Known about the structure:
By secondary structure, the chain is mainly alpha-helical.
Amino acid sequence: QDMEAQHSANGSGAAPAQRSSLGSNKPPAKKLTISLKKEKPKLPESFEEDTWKKLQLSVRAVHQQQPVDQSFEELYKAVEDLCIHKLGQNLYNKLAAECEQHIETEIAKLVGLPDDAQLLLETVEAAWQTHCKQMSLIRSIFLYLDRTYVMQSANVASLWAMGLQLFRKHVEAATELQPKIVAGILALVHKERSGDMVKRELIRNLLRMFWHLQLYSAQFETAFVEASKMFYQEEGHAKIAELDVPTYLLHVERRLQEENERVGHYLDMQTRKPLIAVLDSQLLQLHVQAILDKGLEPLMTQHRVADLQRLYLLLARVNGLPAIKKGFWALVKRVGTEMVLNEERSSEMVQDLLDLKARMDVLLEQAFDSNEELGHALKDAFEVLINVRQNKPAEHVAKFIDAQLRSGGKGASEQELEAVLDRVLTLFRFIQGKDVFEAFFKKDLAKRLLLNKSASTDAEKSIISKLKQECGSGFTNKLEGMFKDMELSRDIAVAFSQSQSKKDLQAKMGSEIAVHVLTTGYWPAYPPAPLNVPKELLDHQEAFEKFYLSKHQGRRLSWHNSLAHCSLKARIGMLPSGKPGAHKELLVSLYQAAILVQFNDSDSIAYVDIARAVGMEDKELRVTLQSLACAKIKVLNKEPKGRDVDDKDLFHFNLKFDVKQLRIKINSIQLKETQEENDKTTESVFQDRQYQVDAGVVRVMKARKTLSHTLLISELFKMLKFPVTPADLKKRIESLIEREYLERDKDAPSTYNYLA
């Protein structure tokens, strides 16, 4: 561009002429033209080639692991110059070609190695480590290229990624190399699993190489998982046959720990899930039933909590809980059923079941993590096993509660007794025939109250309160009525003791009487027991009856002699001087008292004379005489000696009676329940059930008017709260037809019509 410039007086050109004030003329100014033209600099023709040669030498020095002649600053500047002059693409391509040539050569060396797996793996690892170091160094030289051309160009890999791509390309091209590397790694893993020491660093580096080359999943992981499956499949079958279950489970636990550590040491985290799945499948899932069949029963029987917990946790990994539940249920049911059906240990049945339930509860909580499904299985098992022997468990549960309330839990504290009763009520919940329990419980409660055998009134009321919560007020109405009767009886006794007739009798006869007045509907039905009550008591009975009926008109009293007991004052035995022995107090039943007072008039009495005098039932008389003459404490002697009482036996007062205690309890055999009494109680329950079935049939038919046999049976099963069979129901339906409550439909014999 040409420019014209006019300079001032200080410039190098002439100043323009100025006319002076005097009008003088000067020559015209000259024009100076300056041209400023800039030409684009040109690179030497050999610039790119010379620069590349210099860089190529440095790259080859790196590949050959030799010192680089030029400084890194100089080399960095050379790369920068090429990139500034738009030669980045050529430089990238030349560098890639140079690296590929070197990598191809190195991979070829690996292919030619002898068949030594350890040598191959170590050489491959060394080649990989060298490659990484070399690419890192090369990238530092060509950093400007990596940060400019590569970043500004789409679909161009970074120098590091380029090196990986080239390495992967030639590793894949060497088709024999990859399988050998994978096989070598798998061999080392197998060796380590077998207990040998291996170089974990070597395995880790090789697997990192596979991961960086993006060959890990396709080339290694699939083969590794398959090899692990084969290894653990073989080991699982061998170990389950060789080891007991606790040892096998410890082995599985150790293997799981080892494989988790293996993932942490050299495997990729993505491998953990399929690897652990293989262990679960081959060591656990395939052998769930074998483990339970072989180990569940002995572990539960021996109460090995830690081993059972391990079994539960391991099998839970493979959805083994249904199998555990099934085995747990079957075992509890079998063991409990054996206890219930064992007639030789009937008296210990309830305690055995409580111990079993307590052990299972501990296992459920500590070994099975309070699993809800197993809790349901335990309840279901007890509900089945406790009802396999109809009625007996209900009877024995009532007897067990009776024993606890009689003894007060054998010295246990109130809290401990309460805990025992709570445990027993757990068994009670499983019993289907609760009416049988009620009958026996009511009979036992009556004896405890009437004979003053209860160890704790609070415990008695507590158990009734628990039964009320469990079964409703209808279940305990009669039981609560029995307690009310006892309280009313105490009030009546106080009133009678203050009456004049009582005072006169007591002064006249030197004896007294205490009476319990019982409401018939509340208490068990007691059969009449004939007895010629001794005159001393008969007067008291008549006085009380007269006093009571004067206060409560319209009522009728009946005396139950079988429940009465007495305190007799006697002088028994003979001193060496020939004088009667010391005064004793005998605690006896009314039956025993009636027999003993006969000996006030005679020292020897024949059986037939005793029978005539007391008027008792023959069987009851013989049992009572046995308690007096054949027990450990003999108030009477029998001729001839023996356990059985015959009609021809003769009984003498025992003049050699030498028991030192002043207060002596003579055990009454008749107070102990006999099988006949139990059978009568059970029979009364069955009779009550018949009434309930009859009432249920009438109630249903009255509402429906007409109903088929099948639907009627179904309705009754829903309504009745005790176990009953279809055959029993059919008998009651036939009975109602005979009594004309129902009739069969003329057109459909299996249908019933209600008769109003």
